[in-house]
Specification:
Layout: E1 23-29, H1 35-49, E2 56-62, H2 74-82, E3 105-108, H3 111-123, H4 128-132, E4 134-136, H5 137-140, H6 156-187
Parallel strand pairs: 1-2, 1-3, 3-4
This protein binds 4-nitrophenyl phosphate.
């Protein structure tokens, strides 16, 4: 019966691959100049505020290669700065299949990013464990599975909305990260 199955959003975060090492999170969008670098900056700031910055390594990438090496899209960076974050260090990267086996959690910003990542993982012959580590941000973050909308070329208000979604959702991600890191520490 379907009701016996937990919805995706209720699935706990995957445990760290190495219980004595850092927990590694990659945020992934299409171009790695708007959503996922914003997500990376917000998650890192919230982890620092929660005292978990030395337990979790955060990065980001795009599934596409159009913007490799570029800085963050200026409107994205401006929205971050308005709320006290620094997005100046970013250089866009493309997600590489070799990362699949190295990350503990891969957060897709929207359902098309999720489909692209799953296709890449299937091509790479990833294990079921690795497949389960690829998750939709909107599910993990308690946002009813909502996509983080692609703001590229959009208005400042659209970028502000993306940032608000990321701030709200990442607070829930951090709280789950705290739990999964604590559980791994007690099992060691
Ligand atoms: P992002 O936004 O995936 O949030 O970085 C986009 C950036 C560039 C493109 C699409 C989305 N593009 O088609 O070049």
């Amino acid at each position: 019966m379907l009701s016996d199955m937990p919805p995706d959003s209720a699935a706990p975060l995957p445990p760290p691959r190495d219980p004595s090492g850092s927990y590694r999170v990659s945020c992934v969008c299409l171009g790695n100049i708007c959503r996922s670098p914003m997500a990376e900056v917000v998650l890192r700031a919230q982890l620092a505020a929660a005292g978990l910055h030395d337990r979790v390594i955060v990065d980001s990438a795009g599934t596409g290669d159009w913007h490799l090496g570029e800085p963050m899209n200026p409107p994205a960076r401006r929205q971050l700065e308005r709320r006290g974050y620094d997005g100046s260090a970013h250089q866009a990267r493309q997600f590489d299949a070799s990362w699949l086996a190295e990350r503990d959690l891969i957060l897709a910003m929207d359902s098309s990013n999720l489909a692209n990542l799953r296709a890449l993982a299937q091509q790479a012959g990833s294990t079921p464990d690795t497949m389960r580590r690829i998750r939709l941000f909107g599910e993990v973050a308690g946002l009813d599975g909502a996509d983080v909308p692609d703001p590229w070329g959009g208005s400042p208000a659209e970028f502000a909305r993306v940032l608000s979604m990321l701030e709200t959702g990442m607070a829930r991600v951090v709280s789950q990260l705290r739990d999964v890191i604590r559980a791994a520490a007690t099992e060691r």
